[in-house]
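Support reply, case 0932

Customer input (verbatim):
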Amino acid sequence: MIDALGYLVSAAYSEDKFGVIQQTLPIIIRLLLDIKMAEEKLPIDLVGFRTHVKDPYGRYDHIHQRISLKTSVNAALCRIADTFKNDINGIYLPEEYLRYFQRYLNRRNT
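Our regenerated output:
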């Protein structure tokens, strides 16, 4: 769902003639950043954990889900930042969120 939301917002930049997505863009960005900040606060040690480990008892499912969530949120925020980087001044974000979103705006493409 998060990946789809990131793709939808990015595609809306050129496809949405009525600006429906652009009107809700600050809410979407804040939502994704809230998820990202909450995920970073969870204390789970992933050192030495291999993501391909299959556990018949489901003991590591929460770790797999967290890795998947983290990857999806990062990808969506990067995609949105790449798409709207030239127009970010026209999007109202509270100072705290804007400061956090700057990480994605200032990152270098590798």
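We compared this against your earlier run and they match. Two observations from our side: The two ends are 25 Å apart (CA to CA). The mean pLDDT is 82. Please reopen the case if you see a mismatch on your end.
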